[in-house]
Write a structure and sequence with these properties.
It is built from five helices and two strands, in the order αβααβαα. The protein is mainly α. It is globular. Strands 1-2 form a two-stranded parallel ribbon. It has a domain of about 80 residues.
């Protein structure tokens, strides 16, 4: 009974490291969460508690979740601060998920059936 939104799109920016692309993805997810929460409120759906985001880059998750962490590149800082703002207001929570247990990696990486079956089965069979 929980809505799940799965989004996949080519990013409009080019990053030299996964750290920056994780922050861009977190900002995009934050903006989508804020939009979906607003739509649900317009429809009269009561919202109880924060929305959860999961990321498989632990340093990006920690940088966005810890208020006193410092970023050196401005474009990363802008994305990170948007995510931090939503976390600080209690709208979202950002948690680390191990890459091998990340269901989003099923679509983006080449896996053998036996290595992803335990992650895929709960998504296919409730």
């Amino acid at each position: 009974m929980t809505p799940v939104d799965w989004y996949s799109k080519l990013q409009t920016t080019v990053e030299t490291a996964t750290f920056g692309s994780e922050h861009v993805a977190a900002r995009t997810a934050t903006e989508q969460i804020l939009d979906l929460r607003l739509i649900l409120r317009y429809l009269g759906v009561p919202l109880d508690g924060p929305s959860f985001m999961f990321g498989d880059n632990e340093s990006a998750v920690n940088t966005a979740s810890v208020p006193h962490s410092k970023l050196h590149k401005r474009h990363n800082a802008l994305s990170c601060h948007r995510t931090r703002e939503a976390i600080a207001t209690g709208v979202t929570r950002f948690h680390h998920i191990v890459g091998t247990a990340n269901p989003a990696d099923i679509h983006s990486k080449h896996w053998g059936h036996s290595s992803i079956w335990e992650t895929l089965r709960p998504l296919l069979f409730w």
